[in-house]
Automatic annotation (TrEMBL):
Pfam families: FliE. Keywords: Bacterial flagellum, Cell projection, Cilium, Flagellum. The keyword Thylakoid does not apply. PANTHER family: FLAGELLAR HOOK-BASAL BODY COMPLEX PROTEIN FLIE, PTHR34653. The gene is fliE. It is found in: Bacterial flagellum basal body. This is Flagellar hook-basal body complex protein FliE. Belongs to the FliE family. The keyword Transferase does not apply.
């Protein structure tokens, strides 16, 4: 067995735990992303609940329209963000190596 490959494998094995993120210490961008994601799901859940209440006759039409407008804005924002991420990824792929 080649000594260099054995050393490389041992070095990789020793560094592998350092490459895995520690869930207890989330960076600020991870915390922000988690907060935004939770806010997005909460908005959609609230809009869905308002729509169900409106179908049952328990919510006024104004509240339904407002909830649907908020959820539409949230979905459009997420789609725009996704489009920007995909565009950036495609630009990275086009870069010459």
């Amino acid at each position: 067995m080649d000594v260099r490959s054995l050393t490389a494998a041992q070095s990789y094995a020793s560094l592998r735990p350092a490459l895995q993120p520690d869930p207890k210490q989330a960076s600020s961008i991870e915390q922000d992303f988690a907060r935004v994601t939770q806010d997005f799901t909460n908005r959609l859940a609230a809009a869905e609940q308002t729509a169900q209440q409106a179908m049952a006759g328990d919510a006024d039409p104004h509240a339904l329209v407002e909830a649907l407008a908020q959820s539409e804005l949230a979905v459009e924002t997420v789609v725009a963000l996704r489009d920007k991420v995909v565009e950036a990824y495609q630009e990275i792929l086009r870069m010459p190596v």
